Amino acid sequence: MFYLKYRPKTIAELDNSRVRDQIKKILESKNLPHAYLFVGQKGTGKTSTARIFAKAVNCFKRSSIEPCNHCANCLAIASSSFTDVIEMDAASNRGIEEVKNLIRETSFLPMSGKYRVFIIDEAHMITTDGFNALLKTLEEPPETVIFILATTNLEKLPKTIVSRCVKVNFGKGLQKDIISMLKRITIQEKLNYQNDFYSLIAKHSDYSFRDAAKILEEVSMQKIKSVEKLEVFLGIRGKSNLLEIIEAKNAKKTYEWVEEFSQNGGNFKNLIEDILEELRIQLLIKKGVKIEDEKTADLTFSEISRLIKLLMEAYQLLRSTPIESLPLEIALTEFYNVSPLVIPNEARDLN
Ligand SMILES: Nc1ncnc2c1ncn2[C@@H]1O[C@H](COP(=O)(O)OP(=O)(O)O)[C@@H](O)[C@H]1O
Ligand SMILES: [Mg+2]
Ligand SMILES: [Zn+2]
What we know:
It is built from 17 helices and five strands. By secondary structure, it is of the alpha/beta class. Belongs to the DnaX/STICHEL family.
């Protein structure tokens, strides 16, 4: 898997630029803080960074702030067999007993490293009792202990916990950083794509490095090389195309288009998202909002809003449908059932 194979192993490889600089500064500082809070959306590098951090502070051959990735400690951490790095998933270990066990662990001296590093993932899942038990240890941890709490939901953490940690904000993956990651992977995989190709993947990755790496892997497996093919794959091919057919109220052509899209392996989730985005813009235009470079669709206000509602329902149904194209086909059928297939322009303007 690309996203595991190319998981960053050094600080320099962290493509999340804001985080990279912050982590560098922390590791260079004379007094290393003992508690950290890594906050950010999924797939932005919290776990990867926590492991790099654990290596950096425990590396035998540390010449700079970077871990060497070759010494016994670095190798043990990489293979999750290092007794001084303890990872706990708070989603499944959230109660007071688990936290107490963890606190007991902090009283032991490191076996082979300099620090015992406790990485608590999904930290917001810890119970109130658990947090209370953790508070004191977090405030005055033993000299040889480092805590790294990772969370996607900062607002669910008690303020008392937050205020005792150095916060590192991972945010969402920036487009330019995700592109750097994709290029780092393709250079090593000896793949070569146009710049637009990378931007398009980054745009469809939900701001997640992990998702972007997954798309790239699928695309390379499918031997997709051109931007046009990538558009089909991502389901954004001809979104305007489909909208134009809908505007013309050509039912037969509409179903043919959807069938072809389906045959080509198009992604219906992305397709519906893109059409909704376009319809939203059309709604704004109808309300007099000026939007550059947008042409006005040949649909009335009520048609646009009805189409939006139907497509939102179709979007929900995507999760449970046995046939991917069906929700969209039903939505369009309902749309045409109410909207007369051919109506004169004058009549339509009265809508
Ligand atoms: N900053 C980054 N630079 C490069 N790749 C990244 C970065 N952050 C995440 N990734 C990719 O995403 C995958 C998941 O990252 P992970 O650290 O598990 O994220 P999180 O813990 O925030 O969900 C990694 O294996 C890696 O492929
Ligand atoms: Mg993680
Ligand atoms: Zn090392």
